[in-house]
Amino acid sequence: MITIVGTGHVFDLRTEIERIISETKPDVICVELDEERYKGLMLKKEGTKIKRSGSFLYNLLARFQERAAKIYNVNAGDEMLFALKTAQERGISIALIDMNAQMVFREMFKIMPFKEKIRLLLSSLTSLFVTRESIEKEINKLQNDYRRFMEEIDKRFPTVKKILIDRRDSFMVTKLEKLNQDHNSILAFVGDGHVPGIEKRLILRNIEVRVIRLGEIIRDEANTARFSVVYDTNDGPVA
Q1: Which residues of the chain register pLDDT less than 70?
Q2: Sheet holding 93-96, edge to edge
Q3: What is the pLDDT of residues 18-71, one digit of tens each?
Q4: Could you tell me if residue 199 is inside a domain?
């Protein structure tokens, strides 16, 4: 059984993550990170200043996540680090299942048409002025009508949809499928936007899958404790 949990990279989800891990009792915990981003997040958490690498747009998207996280008094990617920390404390195996972010973005920008680059640049610049209200509006759109949300992305940013979402979904599913051969219970934390694509691909491979969406976590957290609602789109951007 593979349990897929949708997260928001700028939410404080620690209470619910710990609860889900306790209830699921997984053999292995997977997170939507690659080795490079994991090391970057760890260094950042330790207070080490990291020199940014990557393209201008890559860093712009990373700044958006950082700004959105500050609105909710967390650091982007904290939920992934907390899941890994909890796994290590409980002696649970861990796995980083995402593609190398720098390579993904380099390929995406290499094949992206000029007009799409301009649209993405303008959208990224606008996102630097994100507000709590706009974040929550996007969450609702994603949760209430995922298909339409993805159609809008595909229409405006087809290369982003193809490389940043679809290709990474397929990559993570391949990693999960291999882990599923050796483990009875797998728990994976990924950005909520990846959940439907991963679920669909796992079902097509006849793999038993359970899904917990970000909206469910937010409702549960709101019913049990103090909670400030937050959104997903590491030391680099995470989709």
Answers
A1: 9-10, 45-76, 127-132, 134-136, 138-143, 219-239
A2: 93-96, 28-31, 186-191, 2-7, 209-212
A3: 999 999 999 999 999 999 888 888 877 665 555 555 556 666 666 655 655 455
A4: yes
CA 125 vs. chain centroid, Å, equals 21
Determine whether 132 is exposed, middle or buried from the number of CB atoms within 10 Å of its CB (0-12, 13-18, 19+): middle
Total domain count for the chain? 1
**pLDDT (0 to 100) of residue 76:** 64
Residue 44 in domain: yes
Q: Is residue 88 part of a domain?
A: yes
Distance from the Cα of residue 202 to its chain's centroid: 18
Report yes or no on 238 lying in a domain: no
**Which domain, by its residues, includes 143?**
2-224
DSSP state of 167: I
